């Protein structure tokens, strides 16, 4: 999730457990600790552009790291803030640990993938119940946290937590409905998907991106799961076959290893870009939910040295047009 949402959820949990006198302090420490796990984005390399993909949402997001992450946050924040606010070291540790604990669980509700069980497993958990940014989730929670701090009312923070849980539960219901619509659409086309996923589109849980896999292709469509359910047919693209699509690629080269690293990160949903022949895209994410145009990809160079890495690319396209089209999907009857 975005840093603000991580922070306010991190604030709400320690606030809800504190006494009225400490609600503001609990919220402040929880807010900062709730964002701290994402400091793993600093693990990157100018030589290896995919390094950050391997470490983001890895050990700092693992369940076993929660008490360690909380202790590190408390070690810093108690000296900067906690002691000045009259907190004991134990209180600072508790508030920081509770705030830190919310981060990975909330990230797992998104579609990116979070290694909750590291170092025992590298499985990436993605429950696909909420977009990485969702104002309807964040703003009521933010209001509850601010009012709880100003009025010294832990009950308001608990109300905010109840909203967060209810909203994520609604996202789960919407996800399942979107998956059912995707399966019905595939059946209409005579397809039996090898796998199918539904992911919320940007900033809402009403319109969903449905991606399913057949023997040789990926199909991408959008569906509105409730409020006049509707299907927005999309595109399809051939699955990546390296021998066919990149016959020049040396299997022993660094670029070939990078392709497999990108395949792991993308949960296998990769295809050659139909416009740029040497670009491999992650089809799970796009500005419009019924498009295959990617938000990120890797670019290979046929004349590269065997030790050279691929290039990592991000794509934004025509943002204003995409927002307008998405809004139309949201409101059209």
UniProtKB/TrEMBL annotation:
Q: Does the keyword Transcription apply?
A: no
| Transmembrane segments annotated in the record for this chain | 60-81, 93-113, 125-148, 155-173
Q: Which InterPro entries does the record cross-reference, listed alphabetically?
A: Transcription_regulator, YdjM-like
Q: Which UniProt keywords apply?
A: Hydrolase, Membrane, Transmembrane, Transmembrane helix
A single GO molecular function, which one? Answer: hydrolase activity
Q: Which domain of life is it from?
A: Bacteria
> Do you know which PANTHER family this protein is assigned to?
HYPOTHETICAL MEMBRANE SPANNING PROTEIN, MEMBRANE-BOUND METAL-DEPENDENT HYDROLASE
Q: Which protein, by its recorded name, is this?
A: Metal-dependent hydrolase
Q: Which organism is it from?
A: Pseudohalioglobus lutimaris
Q: What is the lineage of its organism?
A: Bacteria, Pseudomonadati, Pseudomonadota, Gammaproteobacteria, Cellvibrionales
């Amino acid at each position: 999730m975005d840093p603000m949402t991580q922070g306010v959820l991190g604030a709400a949990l320690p606030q809800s457990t504190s006494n009225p006198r400490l609600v503001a302090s609990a919220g402040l420490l929880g807010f900062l600790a709730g964002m701290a796990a994402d400091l793993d984005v600093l693990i990157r390399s100018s030589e290896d552009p995919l390094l950050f993909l391997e470490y983001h949402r890895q050990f700092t997001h693992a369940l076993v790291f929660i008490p360690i992450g909380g202790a590190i946050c408390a070690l810093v924040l108690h000296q900067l803030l906690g002691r000045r606010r009259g907190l004991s070291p134990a209180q600072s540790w508790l508030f920081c640990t509770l705030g830190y604990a919310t981060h990975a669980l909330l990230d797992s509700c998104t579609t990116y993938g979070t290694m909750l069980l590291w170092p025992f497993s590298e499985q990436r958990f993605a429950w696909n119940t909420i977009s990485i940014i969702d104002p309807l989730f964040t703003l009521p929670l933010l209001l509850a946290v601010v009012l709880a701090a100003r009025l010294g009312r832990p009950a308001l923070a608990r109300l905010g937590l109840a909203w967060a849980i209810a909203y994520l539960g609604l996202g789960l219901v919407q996800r399942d409905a979107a998956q059912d619509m995707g399966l019905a659409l595939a059946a209409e086309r005579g397809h039996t998907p090898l796998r199918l996923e539904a992911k919320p589109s940007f900033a809402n849980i009403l319109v969903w991106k449905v991606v399913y896999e057949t023997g040789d292709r990926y199909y991408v469509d959008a569906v509105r799961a409730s409020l006049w359910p509707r299907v927005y047919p999309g595109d399809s693209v051939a699955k990546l076959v390296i021998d066919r699509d990149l016959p020049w690629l040396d299997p022993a080269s660094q670029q070939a290893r990078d392709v497999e690293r990108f395949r792991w990160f993308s949960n296998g949903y990769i295809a050659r870009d139909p416009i740029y022949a040497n670009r491999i895209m992650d089809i799970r994410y796009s500005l419009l939910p019924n498009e295959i145009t990617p938000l990120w990809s890797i670019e290979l160079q046929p004349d590269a040295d065997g030790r050279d890495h691929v290039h990592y690319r991000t794509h934004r396209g025509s943002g204003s047009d995409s927002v307008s089209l998405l809004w139309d999907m949201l409101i059209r009857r």
